Each structure stands twice: as C-alpha cells, then as structure tokens.
Amino acid sequence: MFISRTTNLSISSRHIARNITRKTAKRTMSVAVKILQPRWYKPEGRSEQPTLKLHNTLTRTKDAFVPVSGTKKVTWYSCGPTVYDASHMGHARNYVSTDINRRILQDYFGYDILFVQNVTDIDDKIIIRARQNHLFENFVDEHKEVTAAVKDRVRASLLEYVSSTLKKDFSTVEEFEEWYASADKASERVANPKFAMHTNAARDCIKALQTGGADFYPLVKDVLVTSLDKELGSTINDPEVFRKLPAYWERQYDNDMASLNVLPPTITTRVSEYIPEIIEFVQKIVDNGFAYAAGDGSVYFDTVKFDDAEKHDYAKCQPWNKGQLDLINDAEGSLTNFAAANGKRSSNDFALWKASKPGEPAWASPWGEGRPGWHIECSVMASDIHGENMDIHSGGIDLAFPHHDNELAQSEACFDNRQWVNYFLHTGHLHIEGQKMSKSLKNFITIEEALRKYSARQLRLAFGLVQWNNQLDFKESLMLEARSLEQSYTNFFKNVRALHSDYKHSLESGKLISKKLGPSEKELLAGLGDAQNKVHAAFSDNLSTPQALKHLSDLVTKANTYISAAGADLRIEPVLA
Q1: In angstroms, rounded to a whole number, what is the distance separating the alpha carbons of residues 313 and 315?
Q2: What number of other Cβ atoms are within 10 A of residue 287's Cβ?
C-alpha cells in the first residue's frame, strides 16, 4: 500500500508539472504577441494655420513670405538716415514701424534676421549744410559785434534770398515788406509750397535788423548762409568740414533711436567707408554696358538701354513715375547743374558717380576726381553684406521712386540678374493733424520734441495702432487712444501682479486654496486660445498690429470681467496664463 501510494503521487506530480509547463509556454507566447506596438491614430488638424504674407511693393499685393535660404535665416536691408539735421517724426514713423515688423518676424515667427542699415554721410544736402555751418561760424567769429557794416551785409543777403527763393526782385527791404503785406498768401502758397518757410525766414531777418540783440545771428542765419555759401562755398576744401556735421547728427540719430527703443542694426554701414567698393561697382555696370562716362567725369546709368534689355525692367516699385523729371532731378541733388550740357543721353538717366566741383569732397577714380551718386551707395553697401539677392528691403514710401527703383536697376545691371530684392516693404507717410509735416506750416516735430510730451511706449503704441504701410495721421485723438490703451494694459498687469502676490502670501500662511477650474475659468482659457489664434492670423496678414492690439484688448477685457465676477473664488493660474 505504501509503495503503491508513493508511485501514484509521483505520477500525479509529473502530470501537474507537464500541465504547468504547457500553460507557462502558452502565457509566454501570449505575452510575446502583445509586445507589438498597438496602433496609433494620427490626429487630424481641424484647420491649417494661415501663411505669413507681406505687402510687397514689387507686386502691390500681399505675397507669401518665403526666405531665399529655405530656412529661418532672413536677409534684410533698411535704408538708413542721411545725417545732416535732427531726426523728426517722419523718421520715427519709418524706423519704429520697421522695428515693430522686425521684432514680430524675429520674436514671434522665429526668423533669424541679418538686419543691415546704412548711414549716408556723403550727400548734396550734407555738403551744403556743412559748408554753410562752417562759413556762418567763421563769419560770427570775425564779426562778434553787430556793426552797421554787418547789417548792410545782411540786408543785401536778404534781398538776394528773396530773389532766389520767392522769385521777387526788390531794391530795398521796405519794398519787400510792402509787397508781403498786400500779397495773396493763399495763392502764393499754391504756387510755391515753401512760400511760408521762406517768408518766415525773411521776416525773422527783418526783425533782427530792427531790434538787434543777442539773438541777431540766430534770426538772420537762414538768410545769411545762402549768401555766404554762394560767395565762398567753392573755397571750402578741408575734408574735416564735411566729416564734422554728419558725425554729429549720426550720434544724435543713434540717441533718438535708443530713446524710442528701436533695436540697433545687426550691421551698420557708412558710405564714406565704401568708396573703393562703390568705384568697383560702378565700373562693373559700365563693363556690362548699362552705364557710360560723360565728358565732365561723371558716370550715368543708361535707363533706356537697361529697360530695353530682355531680362530687365526699370522702375519696378512705381513704374507710373518713369519720366517724372521733378522727382528725378530732386533725387539728383541741388548741387547738380541741370542747365549745363553734362553729357547725359536721356533726362531719365541718373548719376552713379558725380564729378566733384570746387567746394565738394572728392576721391580719385578712373573717371576723375568725384564722389558717389546717392542711389549707388545703398546698392553697394547692401550687396557687400547680402550678395546678389536678398529677402527684404525696407524704407519710407517717399523713397520708392526714384531712389529704390534706381537701386534695383543698378544692382540688377551689376549682377546681370532679374531680381535683387524679393520683398520691398515701404512704410506709409506721416502727416500731422491731416497735413504734411513742414517747417513752413510750423508743424515740424523732431523726435526729441515729441519725447518731451509722450513716452516712447506711447509713440510705439500709436504707430502700432496704424497699419505699417498705410498713411499715419499723427494727431491728438491717436495719442489719446494710445495713452488709453497703455493705461489699460498697465492697470491689468499691475492688478494681476497684486493678485499673484496675494495668492503666494496665502500659500505661505498655510491656507489651502482650491485650484479646480469651474466653467468661468474654462471659458477664460477658451478666450485665451481664441485670442492667440486671432493674433496669429493678424500677424500672418501683413503683420497687422492694429488687429493684434484689438484682440489683446478684448482679452484683457474678458480677464478683467472674470476677475471682477470671481472675487474671493478667483483661480490665479488661468489669469496668469
């Protein structure tokens, strides 16, 4: 019995072991099958994000922005200041609006921007102003006492000034005064837009002659410098005279931009440091057959030959302005003698290199002593950094023709390519209370003057409230709107910081605060998401800051409504978000 039972137990144990082995193997097989990754269901987007589009002067439409690099790297050239006087609100509008656009592309869309901006320190305006200041300072030093002889000299200068600016000839100052008293001011302003500016300068001069005093020279300066420059300007040949003025105003411009919180360029280029490159660039255009040297040593761009070439087009920004001699001649500079036979093949042709006359800075070149034309400067400096093609070129709309159209033509002539710039962004004009800003209208506002009345933030908000490529009317109602917006944001941020501080103090005191979100908090978060989508759509639509600011203001209103309604039950996390 004992032996039999043992045998049976042994058989039973083997049977159990076999069953366990089979089950273990089956489970092992089952586990092995489940190691395979379960299926993942790819989410389907509800809607596509809008594409970033920019208003491109070259097409006069909003074009999808596609960088040349195919990556996030962007090349950008911005036309910088011609430094001969104080920067004004027209400058502020252009540079602040461009700065806002740059920040959105850089900080919101994440582009890596190489931003190049020039300083023009060789130009007709600079040459004239530098000479005049130098001659005026010398005259004052030599005539510290206002003698009868000085007054006679000023009277003669006044009659000369009136003749040249108002096209009126008088034998005495009294004759001018009689004419001015009876003149039809309205019709005179129509005939001569600078009528008020010139007559104001003349009347200031007359006041100084009558009263004398410590402000004699400041009051007669505008009249006297014209005469001094006409008589002695050609004798000025010291290069330091032409460096001193732009160096001073370049520093003032930099200070103004810093005060307006405008980001400095990645790279700044200065014309006077690019003379060898300018000469080389001009020579290449000549070699390519699109420029020619005139008898006086100037070099002109051949607009007709360029426009006739199969792969080229002249005046891409504003083709309707081709042939507008008033615009063309104004851009050539006041030191150009248009009456002289200077060897131009067409009145539309423009100077790449100007033969220097006495009283003008000069550099040696293959064509003789001369200096750069205005338009060639930007082409050379931009191309030195960005090469034969760039993504963005920006500037004020007043530069579109002929300056930017000439830049495009001479650059495409040099590189013999079809497109030097892919996107031209032009900021709109600035008016003051509905009128064009002008010293003659006494509505000329420098940046320094504006910052005495408004903060940089208020000015930036004001510019942000108007679409960057639209005309901006700088008026009191706009500034009231900007101040109101600033106050709304300031109050909101201050309130939220206080609420957050209270929340942290409550936690430190050991109080248990609920964090569970109710319907109102979820509604606030939904409003945040909606605002984010709308702001993204606004920025994508030509960097529309007016729409973005509107959506942000709506969100602040929603948040304030929630804060007021929630009271002690407020949940801080969605508010902070």
Answers
A1: 7
A2: 10
Q: Is 536 helix (H, G, I), strand (E, B) or coil?
A: helix
Amino acid 139 reads F
Q: What is the pLDDT of residues 461-482, one digit of tens each?
A: 999 999 999 999 999 999 999 9
- For the stretch 535-553, pLDDT in tens is 999 999 999 999 999 999 9
The mean pLDDT value for 488-516 works out to 94
Q: Which H helix or E strand runs over 76?
A: strand 73-78
Measured between alpha carbons, how far is residue 27 from residues 33, 37, 42, 320, 566 in Å?
10, 18, 32, 84, 57
Radius of gyration of the chain (CA): 36
Contact yes or no for 104/65 (Cβ under 8 A): no
CA–CA dist 533, 535 (Å, integer): 6
Between 515 and 408, whose confidence is greater?
408
Backbone angles phi, psi at 55, to 5 degrees: -75, 115
pTM of the model: 0.90
Question: What amino acid is encoded at 43 in this protein?
Answer: P
What number of residues does the chain have?
A: 577
Contacts (Cβ under 8 Å, ≥6 apart) of 445 = 88, 89, 432, 437, 474
Percent of the chain, pLDDT > 90?
84
CA–CA separation, 163 and 1 (whole Å): 148
Under 8 Å CB-to-CB from 83, ≥6 apart: which residues? 119, 120, 121, 126, 245, 246, 249, 250, 253
Q: What SS3 state is found at 64? A: strand
Which residue in this structure is represented by tokens 């008088």? 170
